[in-house]
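Researcher: I'm preparing a figure for a lab meeting and need a structural model of a single chain. I don't have an experimental structure, so a prediction will have to do for now. The sequence is pasted below. Please return the structure as tokens so I can convert it later.
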Amino acid sequence: MRPALVLFAVMGFCSSVHAGELPKPIAQIELPQLLPVREEILANVAFVTDTSIAIGLRAKYAGESKLTLLEWKNGELRPVASTRDFGLDILNLHRSPGGILAVGVTGSAFFYSADLSSRRPIERVHGISPTGTIVLHRTKDGWQLQRFDSHEEVLRRGHDELLSVSDDVVAVRQKTVLSIETIDGRVVGSFQAPAESKCPAHVRILAGGRLYVDDCKGVRIVDFNGNTKLRMRRPKGWSANRIGFDPASADGNRLLSVNFSRKISFLHRAGEILVAITTLGMGVSDEVDNREEIRVVDTRTGGMCFDRLRSFPMGWASPFENVAAISPSGDFVAVATDRHLSIYRLPSMCASQN
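Model: Understood. Here is the structure written out token by token.
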């Protein structure tokens, strides 16, 4: 066998599935029980309440999909409502007043009633507040905020870079100033921040007058005037951050993140280099992520409440679907894989990262 073929054979062996050891879930259900197909199932999840979870499922190739509402009690997850009227392009679910909001790839959105008996399209949604009360719509001239399900009342319009939305305030960047303002535009805090072209930032408004900031200066919790309250370690990899779809507990004290990265063996890397050389730099076609890390961090102490690292075949998982969710109380986290939906109880005291 030629050396190049040997390398490719080893490359295939090195990219096999590896699953790390996980804490024991307090409730679990098999996804094929909800969507009976003989292929990989992609899922996205959202807590509606602490004891009810919405899960959207779609077969990777067959074109089948389903939205199910589950309730869990005494260690058992039980379907209580479902609908096949669920689009294949839906990537994010979010609780909303009186039901569930489903948002697609381009912002296309649908509102499902609480019992999933009805669905209706709504204006494209590009962001949402933690409770689902305020929604963000992008426009040709900038953006506008509306109270959910209000087709006439525009709460605010803007042109500056909008970074985060809560039920009460927004975070906007105006050139080199990050400003925290009420929904009606009153400034309640501000501080200097590098321009977006020099320092892209991920910002989330937390309860108690705090912000989670991840930028070129590091990851930290600051007050509305930029004073650092806590420094945190940045998780490895990258995340597909969308406004309002980076879940936290209702009080903002626990923040969930899902990060994707790629790890390959030395021989796999050598094989890719060989392919790049023989194809004059064109490279290989499978340079995609194969690891997913789900973390829950206490934003008051920096303590790690949950840390789950999973490896999977390259190209299997989508980094744009919300495969994990945290309950409003911050006591539970739900994780969907290709086979199971699992519920884990988070500790009351979280381990320090130091």
